[in-house]
Amino acid sequence: MAEQPELGEEIVPGALEFSPDQLLAEDSYEEPLIAAGVRCHGGYIAGRYVSPRGRVRRPAIANWQRRLHDAREPLVHIPDRYVPPNYPNYEQAKFLLKEGITEPITRSLTIISIIEGFGARIRDLPVPDLSAQVKDDIQGTALAHLTGGLFEAHARDEAGHRDQGGHKQMWEAARDLGLDKPHIPGDVLMRLMSGSGRGRGERLFPELGEKMEALITTMANVLVVETFAENTFNWAQALLGDPDVSAHAADAAHMVACIAADEIPHVDYLTTAMSELRARTLISEDGLKEFQGSEVVDAIFSRQLRGMATRRPQENRERLREEIHQAIDDKARATRIARKFEDLDSGWSFPHTDDEQLELLLETR
After folding, report:
1. Residues ≥6 apart with Cβ < 8 Å to 272
2. Distance between CA atoms of 159 and 194, rounded to whole angstroms?
3. Which of 85, 150, 199, 342 gets the highest tally of CB atoms within 10 A of its CB?
């Protein structure tokens, strides 16, 4: 087994084995991050924001990825052309705010904050005995550390931990800074719940253990969400950082930038773990059948990506159109604003038909 560095020491170059405490270890911050009076995670060093729980987690992920690179194994990667733009786009959202229609934007930002809080549930994801269902050795991999610090760090980042806020509180602060503490629509939770009733669908590999397929499906789903979130961050920074419509533009945009920085290790460790699975052989629950990891990961990942990239944009469009009309009593004005809002739509469609294989891999170099 590779040597584990002590918590108070610099990690050994190339180290691959870490304890949970190490993967949750903090940098030595000089100044805390305060969001709307709440002490949040992370902090500042030499005036620069540094994300939480990264002192060992950052180099650990880099080492695991380097191991894949040295083995000439590709990383799972979502090409930009598969990532739908945020809806409403910046021009549409700014138009609504300048027209005094704040509820749709307030609702969207509030839903984001609630979903971030739900991210803590990743720590409760059942993980099967990987040593029994993965034929190849997983020692010294991100896979072997999912329940040994990586899922817990992710959960704390999203929902906060103990007396420190996380992304839920940071999104709320960004919303309140930019929109000057807007009224929160009372139907936010109801609308969120009405759009979350879909399950994972029919199993693609029923001979695999159910926990194994659920693990891969959930990680793929979260990785897609985290990848799509980059467009949301860019949108929110542009909108909440626009002094034409934002009450405290610089502070609101900075808060979003801090969240965006925190999400980088989430994308990186999920990418690494999925790529490690893809490079291995998986074993059926009864032990009688083997699957190439690439077959399983590619199929599940493609289904999750295609579904979210096609279903969510359509749902968002339908919801926003309804909300505009609900927010305006004057039907003539509502029609005029809705028409202008539609004119500002940049449009987007998924670039592949249902029977085409998606190109999900970043080639090794």
Report:
1. 61, 64, 65, 68, 75, 141, 142
2. 22
3. 150
Nearest to 43 by CA among 55, 56, 27: 27
Cis status, amide bond into 52, omega within 30 of 0: no
Q: CA 35 from chain center: how many Å?
A: 21
With a cut of 50, which residues of the chain have pLDDT below it? 1-9, 197, 365
Q: How far apart are CA 169 and CA 259, in angstroms?
A: 10
- Least Cα distance to 224 among 82, 81, 69 occurs for 82
pLDDT confidence of residue 325: 78
**72: alpha, beta or left, given left = phi > 0 and alpha = psi -120 to 50?**
left
d(CA 73, CA 259): 30
Residues in the chain: 365
Tokens for 290, please give them.
């083997």
Q: What is the pLDDT of residues 332-349, one digit of tens each?
A: 888 899 899 999 998 888
CA angle 24, 30, 32 (to 5 degrees): 70
Q: Which region, left, alpha or beta, applies to residue 162 given φ > 0 means left and ψ of -120 to 50 means alpha?
A: left
Whole-model pTM: value is 0.91
Q: Which DSSP state fits 286?
A: T
Give residue 8's pLDDT: 43
Q: Which two tokens stand for residue 134?
A: 């993965």
Find, among 214, 191, 193, the residue nearest to 204 by Cα. 214
